[in-house]
Amino acid sequence: MDSTTLLEQERSRKGRGAKITVVSYDGTAVEKSSATDMGSALEWIGRRRVTWILVQGKLEMDELMVLQKWGGLHPLVIDEIAEEGPSRPKLMDLQGVIFLTWRLLLLEGLEVKEERAVCLLGKGFLITIVPPGVRMDKTMDALGNEHNEIRSMGTDYLLYDIIDSVIDDYFSISEEMGDLIEDAQDSILNDGGTEALANVQGLRRALIKVRKAIWPLREVINALVKGQSDLVDAYTAPYYRDAYEHTIELMDTVDTHRDMVSEMLDMYQSMVSNQLNKIVKVLTLISVIFAPLTFIVGLYGMNFVHMPELSSPYSYPAVLVIMLVLAVLMLLMFKRKGWF
Amino acid sequence: MDSTTLLEQERSRKGRGAKITVVSYDGTAVEKSSATDMGSALEWIGRRRVTWILVQGKLEMDELMVLQKWGGLHPLVIDEIAEEGPSRPKLMDLQGVIFLTWRLLLLEGLEVKEERAVCLLGKGFLITIVPPGVRMDKTMDALGNEHNEIRSMGTDYLLYDIIDSVIDDYFSISEEMGDLIEDAQDSILNDGGTEALANVQGLRRALIKVRKAIWPLREVINALVKGQSDLVDAYTAPYYRDAYEHTIELMDTVDTHRDMVSEMLDMYQSMVSNQLNKIVKVLTLISVIFAPLTFIVGLYGMNFVHMPELSSPYSYPAVLVIMLVLAVLMLLMFKRKGWF
Amino acid sequence: MDSTTLLEQERSRKGRGAKITVVSYDGTAVEKSSATDMGSALEWIGRRRVTWILVQGKLEMDELMVLQKWGGLHPLVIDEIAEEGPSRPKLMDLQGVIFLTWRLLLLEGLEVKEERAVCLLGKGFLITIVPPGVRMDKTMDALGNEHNEIRSMGTDYLLYDIIDSVIDDYFSISEEMGDLIEDAQDSILNDGGTEALANVQGLRRALIKVRKAIWPLREVINALVKGQSDLVDAYTAPYYRDAYEHTIELMDTVDTHRDMVSEMLDMYQSMVSNQLNKIVKVLTLISVIFAPLTFIVGLYGMNFVHMPELSSPYSYPAVLVIMLVLAVLMLLMFKRKGWF
Amino acid sequence: MDSTTLLEQERSRKGRGAKITVVSYDGTAVEKSSATDMGSALEWIGRRRVTWILVQGKLEMDELMVLQKWGGLHPLVIDEIAEEGPSRPKLMDLQGVIFLTWRLLLLEGLEVKEERAVCLLGKGFLITIVPPGVRMDKTMDALGNEHNEIRSMGTDYLLYDIIDSVIDDYFSISEEMGDLIEDAQDSILNDGGTEALANVQGLRRALIKVRKAIWPLREVINALVKGQSDLVDAYTAPYYRDAYEHTIELMDTVDTHRDMVSEMLDMYQSMVSNQLNKIVKVLTLISVIFAPLTFIVGLYGMNFVHMPELSSPYSYPAVLVIMLVLAVLMLLMFKRKGWF
Amino acid sequence: MDSTTLLEQERSRKGRGAKITVVSYDGTAVEKSSATDMGSALEWIGRRRVTWILVQGKLEMDELMVLQKWGGLHPLVIDEIAEEGPSRPKLMDLQGVIFLTWRLLLLEGLEVKEERAVCLLGKGFLITIVPPGVRMDKTMDALGNEHNEIRSMGTDYLLYDIIDSVIDDYFSISEEMGDLIEDAQDSILNDGGTEALANVQGLRRALIKVRKAIWPLREVINALVKGQSDLVDAYTAPYYRDAYEHTIELMDTVDTHRDMVSEMLDMYQSMVSNQLNKIVKVLTLISVIFAPLTFIVGLYGMNFVHMPELSSPYSYPAVLVIMLVLAVLMLLMFKRKGWF
């Protein structure tokens, strides 16, 4: 996804319409053109076996009305397309047309941004509406390559190819997050500061978002295969099942990441406890060694008139030796206890 | 919901009956009137395609008896209507009439107040009983607008519209709670006091209440669609499925909020541990630096007659220098250990 | 339940038989009498539409044999009736007779006592065996009231009425426990002692017992409705479904209580940590302030002959001022760190 | 189980064969004899309605081959019988013969020892293979008693009776563990040492083992009742269902025990935290009281020439009084804070 | 698995093809030979009842194409075979051919390495592709032994035998991990250092990997038995069911190991807390004993002119005695409190 996405999105909302691309193809030829409005785009449908209408940006209400009239769509579908912001991935099977949404994810630092993609799959056509700036290069390139299997297949394979690249994007985000988690782990082990802790919380939240994008997509793919709809054919079904397996693998990875994050927090807690133990050991060591010594020097600092020891010339060195022996003994004792 | 709700509720219990509004409509016209009692309200049913009887307040026993006789209702339905306080949302399919309850939520500070709404859906009529003061403006306005789809549709769509606005209310409460959680998070990070902790517990409890209102409502909606009842027709079913999806999204949000609250508690615990570590570090630092120094000054405060060092003029400055060096060395050692 | 239960139970075990009450009724009349033995009680069955035999206390083996011969019961049923102590609520559907058990709960302080109730439902009769002293006043009163619906209905409604009052008892125990939990919460917040902690553990255990009484009862009720047995008729089914909903509500409440108890423990842990932090702060404050001061006074307590400061008349007040300034500075520093 | 088990087991492995007992019976008579080998034991089958072959010890390979040839058993069954050590309880339904295994448990101190029992149930026969030294007295005694129901029933009831005594053994182990848990609880409350903690971990592990013996046995019993096999007849089915209920009750108890153990660990943690708080309170109290006093006495131990207070005759008692007042004030302050 | 695996793997990637072994057999004879390419290997299929093609190493693209053309395989199967790195174990049933993958595990220190095995099961043939260096000696030996059951059975049993040895490998890894966990437990109990903690985290991660290899394999085995495919016959089914039981046992063991690891962490935490308590006790003991003593000696070190005690000859011994008594009293007090 391009870094100019947000900018373009802004521009498109302020008046410039969405960018509409039409790709119509069958085993023999591919035609690709830009359409100025939905009406002219829809006219392409039926000319070749598969027509893919890719809308990058937001459709205006009048365009949506054109779409509804053309397809005799349920008003809810139009509501769903017009809605903004990412929603829960879902599939609605509506008399001959399948409506799908999923989430596009974009990792920025520790945060996961979510955008919304919408699809309409019908007999011989696929309409895909994505935010402005989302390029579908992988699929476009595949269509451009005449040896690619996609050319000889129907709309169901086209949809599979699109979903497959969405899942690929998830995989690369998941890998990036794995790296971030390992970085966080290193940073906790090295400086163990509170910033590291904040990062961990950020990672946790990002993982929850990724999970929420994947899990319902899995259901959507399942519904496509298990559904009685004749829009997905027997030959393409294994591909969808493969995509389904990929979402499960992804979930596994995300769950492993979540375990690693929990683990990290546990380790952090253990380290903090351990460190406290060490600090308190130092404190105790010092106190235990100096408390009796300080007492002894205080003892001979008393001003009693009758303290016979004070006048003996051997007293001072004797006291010094006693204190040294005491200190050494205590150090030995702590050594034996394994305190340092 | 109006702030005078509780007051009105009180008043209605002390004698003033419930407020009954009847809206009867079909594609061509809408008639709206107030009814003084249940009997006259029920007479409206059948005049137009859809009759909506909205009862705001508590029905007296005699009114309930009128309702039961009119509809030949199972005594349990009357018991359920007469009951006070919020119950678990549920659906009972009783020979041609569907009985439904759900919870209305109202966020006051950190507390969630629950009220009870009751519905009877039958052929051509919908009876809705809500606490006094609960206005159903959104649906009333839709009925008032002649271009609104609701006018051309049946009781099933009317019920959907009402449920949909209940869910919308849940969504806005959920958003408010999200804000409250973020506030709590900030307050913990800034002053980390015990009040913040109390708030967190309040939020937790509120989230549990929201969850308990949503989860069974989801089942109720599902039962409406999956049920064999012919009261919900095929065209309206996708709307209910959409509402169903919305409850799932809500649950997702609530669960995310719960995760955030747990996360916050973990973070709080970590902060408290961290802070303890810091305090104990300061304590240890001071003890470790002053313990030997205090010992040294005590040493030369002893009153032995034979302490040769005492009479030398260089002893005092020498001891001062030794102590300074000792203090600096220890500070350096702690610096290297990363203690400050 | 009467406080003399245990006493009566004791007495009944030592020889006095169980108290047997027979209530036989139909829409027109109710006959109620005491029976001296099972044999004469069973003779009542068939005289009117419904015969309820209520046994309060333990049946002797010979009585049980009479029952078995009369009903051709499976030996297991007799074993189950003869068994002592509460067992897991269950339902056994045995050729025309349904055998049921559930638990009666009694809250004593923080402890939940469990007792056992047993039921045999057959065509036209219901035999209920409860511990001595368990009065079934609610159902008896309902049977005594000629306007009560129960009079015009069959054994299935009678059983429902009994189960319903058991559930009502659970509800009141659940409410009492809610109060106990709030008390515990207050006591933790106020004195936070270890006794409070012991109470929490008691509450936890009591909640587990309540859960174990409710959960299988829910299954029993479900089995009654879903079972193919013709002993529960279509008109009564909604009542059972209502009772079923009530057990779910109860479970919800119990689960909320369990959450509250867990919450309380978390809060307790946080409070203990917080308190430790505060104590250590005080310790550190005192140490940090007095350690340098004690060092300074020790410094000028040294007995070196050549300490020029000692003879100056301004030294003493100067040292006092320096120490004061030091103490104030440190207090300010701690103030700024927010330590007090 | 006999304390000589391990010894006997050892001996049997070193050559001495297993001890084989055959009991053949029907409603009229019981014949009991010892068999020297499997071949002669199998000849008993068919003579009376039920033949029970009880093998105590390990069968040699040649004996197993005799068994396989006789029964036309699947090679897997022989593998399973020959296997050593406890395996997961399971049931295999193999053309007319049902193969079952379960675990025998033996509580030694805090440890649970597991042994393996194997069963083959066929038309008219039941072969049971248990470790040497496992006596099945309860079932043997029942067979010996001519008034016992077991005599008039088939192999299915015999198997039920054996499983029932296994479950009874589990119940008594479960009760012993309950006692051990209460002991551990008391010991934690009284001396709270680390040994207590080690015991808790031992209990935890033992509970997991018990759980693993019970849970799959429950499935085995269920498979016996639900299976289409005609080896379990309608009259015996309720007994199996009863045994099934007992395993659920057992699981409940085990789960309660596990909760109690977790609870105990929580309590232990709380007690440790509490104790730390108390210790630190003492430390702080002493430090806070003596730090200022030590400072004051140090102050007047300074050797300044010009310290006017030193020469006044009232200074010494005044300082003593001041220090006393200070100490008392601080004690009062701590008292008010509730520190002791 | 050989220690030269990685080396061989490297070599094979740099050009040397995979090593292909063909074993063709039926009840009467076994033929074993090496094949230079896939084409010639596939020619063996059909000559005898079972043909096993074992590929050790990576197949080049052209070889895969040969395989695809020969079998008319779905392109996805070829993609799956060509893929590198371990994937989630799965099964795809594709018109007459079953495709399977699983994970080979290798324990190196605390780390679990995962490799990928792929299988194609068809009528009369089994193609197994494993990483270079993975020897399948157990199965090869079984085929070499003419008395082994495997010789008289079909491809389904061959596949079972291979899966069975995979599970055996898992069992031995699981046992090794059990030993590692016990070592870690001992090391925590003895030195309780941070390295032990790091090991625990390593074990945790390794256990998760093992779990992820076993769990989906269980599903794969289940799919083989439950599938409608006629490639697994009724006689072999019990073997698969047995393998299925083994995976469940393995899961049980892995879960027990995970419990033990969690337990260990809990114990570690408790030990750290306990140790802190002990350290703080020592600190407190020393402070409490020396604080008053140091105060007393400081008291008589004051320089007041009028301190009558100072001149008495009995004062010094009296103070010494008082201090001794004080120290002894405090020690006794702590003794009674059970502090040492």
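Residues 213 and 234 of chain E are 27 Å apart (CA to CA).
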